[in-house]
Design brief:
Chain lengths: ~110, ~120
């Protein structure tokens, strides 16, 4: 079974400090990797995807195939970054659209 | 577009009762997903449809769970009979899936189910 592992359930950081959310995935082919975010009282939404190679809201994520990781990073956390973050991977050839999510990491940014 | 619409937003029911959750995907999307969110297990994919056809229902926990998509604009997730361990937030999401490109998933606001 495809797996996505987010080892940290909770990350508490101070405003202005760097934040890194870890994500490891089970290897199978060449999956697409994503980070989704759920802010308080908002819908779960896409933050970024590895094929875009872009920075969204100051966040970046690099796909490391050797380590099968897709860690999310931001050099200077802001209070508005407080949210639940989910790492996700696509399925295999016969179930490409099947996104599997990790358990999620709750980020709390304190002033 | 109002996005993915789910109903009801909240449901409280007693064990043994039938529960039906509804979802209207975004117009033009060809894939629909049902997820369940709990504190213990996070977001679990229950079933997904492509062009109204169920593609993978391996995440459906038991025969008590069933899902249908009679047309491109409506889907239901039914639990019969419901049990307290079914208490969770159920999310519906839709996307436009094209060949080997995984489209962005657009989520509904969720249906919070409590089974007493």
């Amino acid at each position: 079974a495809q797996r996505v592992t987010q080892p940290e359930k909770l990350l508490s950081v101070f405003k202005g400090a760097p934040v890194e959310l870890k994500c490891n995935y089970s290897y199978s082919g060449s999956p697409e990797l994503f980070w989704y975010v759920q802010y308080s009282r908002q819908r779960l939404q896409l933050l970024l995807r590895h094929i875009s190679r872009e920075s969204i809201k100051g966040f970046t994520a690099d796909l490391n195939k050797g380590e099968t990781s897709f860690h999310l990073k931001k050099p200077f956390a802001q209070e508005e970054d407080s949210a639940m973050y989910y790492c996700a991977r696509s399925g295999t050839t016969d179930s490409w659209g099947k996104l599997q999510f990790g358990a999620g990491t709750q980020v709390v940014v304190t002033p | 577009d109002a996005g993915v619409i789910q109903s009801p937003r909240h449901e409280v029911t007693e064990m043994g009762q039938e529960v039906t959750l509804r979802c209207k995907p975004i117009s033009g999307h060809n894939s629909l997903f049902w997820y369940r969110q709990t504190m213990m297990r996070g977001l679990e994919l229950l079933i997904y449809f492509n062009n109204n056809v169920p593609i993978d229902d391996s995440g459906m926990p038991e025969d008590r769970f069933s899902a249908k998509m009679p047309n491109a604009s409506f889907s239901t997730l039914k639990i019969q009979p419901s049990e307290p361990r079914d208490s969770a937030v159920y999310f519906c999401a839709s996307s436009f899936l094209l060949a080997r490109n995984t489209g962005e998933l657009f989520f509904g606001e969720g249906s919070r189910l409590t089974v007493l």
